[in-house]
Amino acid sequence: MTPTLTPPAGTVAGPAADERCDRCNAAGKLRLTLAGGGELVFCGHHANRYAEDLVKIAVQYAADPEFNWRGADMMSNSN
């Protein structure tokens, strides 16, 4: 049996291996929870390209562990 880790309440799970970018259908690297509800998934290219706009509408994010999202610093500065 494989142990399962449950994330703390209020966190967002990172993109699953089979999830695709909502913009171009590449592999998902970033999942955003939007202020108005709902979620978006982006590939690394589009996540970084639109980082300044995405931090304005997102309340939480989760990135693939190997992906360095440029919006992460902007999200922590906006709180």
UniProtKB/TrEMBL annotation:
It comes from the Bacteria. InterPro entries: DUF7455 (IPR055878). Residues 17-64 form the DUF7455 domain. Pfam families: DUF7455. This is DUF7455 domain-containing protein. It comes from Mangrovihabitans endophyticus.
